[in-house]
Amino acid sequence: MKVGVLALQGAFDLHARTLEALGAATVRVRTAAELADCDRLVVPGGESTTMSMMAERSGLLEPLRDFVGAGRPTFGTCAGAILLASEILDGRPDQHCLGGLDVAVRRNGFGRQVESFETDLEVPALAAAGLGDAPFHAVCIRAPVFERVGPDVQVLARVDGRPALVRQGAVTAAIFHPELAGDTRLHELFLLG
To answer: Which CATH architecture has domain 2-192?
Structure first.
């Protein structure tokens, strides 16, 4: 199995190193040819508008949509969750999304950088996969908020009653940065799925 990590901007290197520590072969994806060689994909945190523009300029936007639309396992974190949404509520008019999840997302939903926070989340899907039942420490940096979650979207964890980790088919998205937690279980769950 080869796992691509979208490497246009953002925290891609930490994701790649986490996956490599778990034994996965990784590719830092910057071209359509590199994406075509992958079985799974991580769309990291960063700045969602910049990532959207860079994907368009590099010719990756449609290949990314095709990858996600084909039901290939994809994991988006923070800005990656924004890109995977079907609707961005407060994005720029020229900002693109991949439409992998039936969710409406609001960028910086918890506020600006100074309102960033950390919290422990109960994630029953981890225990169900045999990965333990300890809470997962979520690092939320200018985190987005899922304002609407479609009927086919499963909520796997919540922050203050709001969805924080969701899954629809082969697509999973977190509003937080699991690569910063020092806990590899969500990456392990992604590799198992």
So the answer is: 3-Layer(aba) Sandwich (3.40)
